[in-house]
Amino acid sequence: MEKKINLGIVFGGQSGEHEVSRASACNVIEVIDKEKYDITLIGITKDGDWKVYTGDYKNIKDGSWEQDTDKIHADFSIFHDPIIQDVDVFFPVLHGPMGEDGTIQGLFELMNKPYVGCGVLASAAGMDKVASKMLFESAGIPVGPYVYFKRRDWEKDPDSIIDDIAGRGFPVFIKPSNMGSSVGISKAHNKEEFIDGVNEALRYDHKIVVEGFLNAREIECAVLEENGEIKAAIPGEVVASKEFYDYEAKYSDDQDSKIVIPAQISDALLEKIREYAIKAFEVIDGSGLSRVDFFVTRATYNIYINEINTMPGFTNISMYPKMWENMGVSYAELVEKLIQGAAVKRVNN
Ligand code: ADP
Ligand code: MG
Ligand code: MG
User: How many whole angstroms from 264 Cα to the centroid of ligand 1?
Assistant: First the structure.
């Protein structure tokens, strides 16, 4: 029998999406072909400690694995530990900063190990809302009105920033440039709310992006690279229950937000969005997978790209896998394609 591939599943992480990552990782492990793969579980705690876990993967979902101390191996060097060195392919099922932003991808590069998903540049560019908007604009993908500034600009001369924003008109969305899960994001209707919003966003990043409010539907498109070909699924729509799709609406259990696949818009709009999604993936130099999120304005049906997520929510009920399921690719097949893609990338580089 052929030697099994040792797959390192990395889960948890320091970002606000630690819990989602655990849920995604559990679903991924469930469908992995155990005849073909040996699985090494590598958990990153909220404090950023790396731990190898040899217990039952079902304890990952609720976080109880961290109490299973006799099954934890924590004192190791990422570069020298035999357990880590034995991993053939890593699958970082991690979202947000320190997971989806190129940092861990850089570590895998240094270790000379293949990994699922986007590389360093695409991950970093995708996580940074300002950098990605600039790339999208350069590729001719419509981007909604925005401005950005740095902490030092705000500290030097807040009034001219406030006047500039007021001159463009409220309401606006204020976001940390590098973040996810709606963390640090707020909507401001006047100068006072704007100042509060900037201070809130500055807790998470030194770079702030301010966007004009779009009265729009939220349409998302799944992109998958397979055998060197980049494919876009038929888009889906997120129908949010609240004023905006915030962290709670995204991840609470009894959420009223729902996903509708395919999105109920014209075929022409669906096709245009698929075309833009592939362009967005190309321009950030993506590999493996990404979910590209768009706004379609309610009255005028204008398409604007919102953002690209290089490691989108990946539970078996998340939008990304659901879009592929609608295209005839099961969750298990999708996971296998992604792992194969990482292994092939290794051979081609
Ligand atoms: P994150 O990376 O945290 O998901 P997003 O840029 O997607 O950040 O913003 C989170 C949510 O806020 C979006 O899903 C949407 O509901 C709302 N939102 C963000 N920007 C705008 C905007 N310019 N106009 C209207 N709603 C917005
Ligand atoms: Mg995001
Ligand atoms: Mg988003």
Answer: 20
